[in-house]
Amino acid sequence: MKTLTLSAIVFLFCVLAESASAQQFDVAFGVGTVSASSAKTVGALTFPSQSGGAYPGFSADFLLRHRFGIEGEMSWRASQAMYGFQPYRPIFYSFNAIWVPRLNKNVSAELLAGIGGEDVRFYGILNCNGFVGCTTYASSNHFMGDFGGGIRAYIWRNVFIRPEVRVYLINNNVEFSSGHAIRYGGSLGISFGR
After folding, report:
1. Which CATH class is domain 22-192?
2. DSSP assignment of 158-186, as one string?
3. Would you say the pTM of this structure is higher than 0.70?
4. Which of 3, 69, 108, 115 is the most exposed place for a label (fewest CB within 10 A)?
């Protein structure tokens, strides 16, 4: 795993060095919500849905060449939800390949796909270890794939608004009713080097 990570970093620096003249950097902050399958009961166990709630988040991308680049994003549930009697909060994060084709002077599309994870934090649990100390939550982490898109509309100079949709395919999401969720919402962002 360390060799793969080191190889990816070296590759990224080589690509960045070659394409230093054709770059664009974008950052955005937004709010959305999540939709997922409804709760289900199997035997005596009830598995809740991840639907609902406000999900603030931020994203950043770096376009390298021909409007292709890399993107990272993170969104989290703004308030804690209840899992039976246990408060919890899901956090989604991903690293994606992105393509931003220009539709006209002030409008661009976004298409992206990649990998990431879901960190479900269950609160009210004292969790201690020698590496990070103590927290008042326990995490359940799941690998996920994601894909989605959006439309960037530049409203003033390099400032844009972006309606967006992300589909999360969550591996082994045994705490909830399904292994997929859809986040949709909007963001306000700015481009540098456009």
Report:
1. mainly beta
2. TEEEEEEEEEEEETT-TTSS-SEEEEEEE
3. yes
4. 3
Mean pLDDT for all residues in the chain: 88
Pairing between β-strand 86-99 and β-strand 55-65 as defined by DSSP bridges: unpaired
Task: Say yes or no to pLDDT of 99 above 80.
Answer: yes
- Look at residues 57, 55, 56, 59 and name the one whose alpha carbon lies nearest to residue 73: 59
Cα 89 from chain centroid (whole Å) = 15
As a whole number, mean pLDDT of residues 103-130 equals 92
* Residues sharing a CB contact under 8 Å with residue 79, sequence separation 6 or more, in sequence order: 53, 54, 89
Select the more confidently predicted residue: 148 or 47: 148
* Tokens read off for 122: 């269950």
CB distance 89 to 104 below 8 Å? no
37 three-state secondary structure: coil
Amino acid at 95: F
> What tokens does 32 get?
């959305």
Cα–Cα dist 136/110, whole Å: 38
Cα–Cα dist 95/116, whole Å: 6
**C-alpha 47 chain-centroid distance:** 23
Stretch (H or E) spanning 13: helix 2-18
